[in-house]
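pasting for the record
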Amino acid sequence: MELRIAGLTKRYPNGVHALQGVTLTIPPGLFGLLGPNGAGKSTLMRTLATLQEADSGEVTLGDIDVLRDKARVRQLLGYLPQEFGVYPRATAEELLDHLAILKGIGDARDRRRAVQSLLERTNLWEHRNKALGGYSGGMKRRFGIAQALLGNPKLLIVDEPTAGLDPEERVRFHNLLSEVSESIIVLLSTHIVEDVAELCPRMAILFQGRVLLHGDPAGAMRELENKVFRRVVAKSELSDVQAKHAVISTRLVGGRPVVHVLADRAPEGFGPTSPDLEDVYFAAMFRATRSGGGREV
């Protein structure tokens, strides 16, 4: 079962064109959707989750028309939005049981088995009787995944799932997403490049409602071989370097700016560097501001 998106558009009443002809094919497994805040990622996620209408375009999940057969889509959907609220006085077991009823799991024994299995998979079983208001941010995100997995969804949408997590919780969450993606489509929307680099065999970059690039992260990095160069500069030199070269990123290393530039050959004073997915991301942004186009890799 694949998720196919063709020519999806959305313009809000205030004139913001949130989606501009988005076209993607998303196979089973983890698929990363990268983009800055305001790129249209959340609009796309909400549309796929049947929470808002598109202006035009088509979306199919297997043979299901996502934009028209919303009830059928919701039977196959798991969704963890960026802002996920809980009833603070309810325990994890109580709330998950309640949500299982809403998901249509009517038999008490089936619910009990499903709730126990999900709490164990998310490493929350020993905390099942603790009020959710006392959970850490990472525990709440894991509970969010548990509720999203109720009913064995075929499509799982997670929006900015690791934002604000400490390194240990982030690794735990990565392992969980990797595990559940073995048999279903997991769409991971994020602005954190490392999440996609570490998890996703397929990806897309969204910017100003348009797909700039989609395909294989490794292939995208290979395309930038011998085109990205680096140099450590003094802070006083930075503005001059930015004026003379196609600077795609600047990061501090040991308190000193390290500049990456896009070029066909090494500018004077710059040395070659192996491009990573962050270079791919910033290069796509750099090119988009000049050409407005997107491509497949």
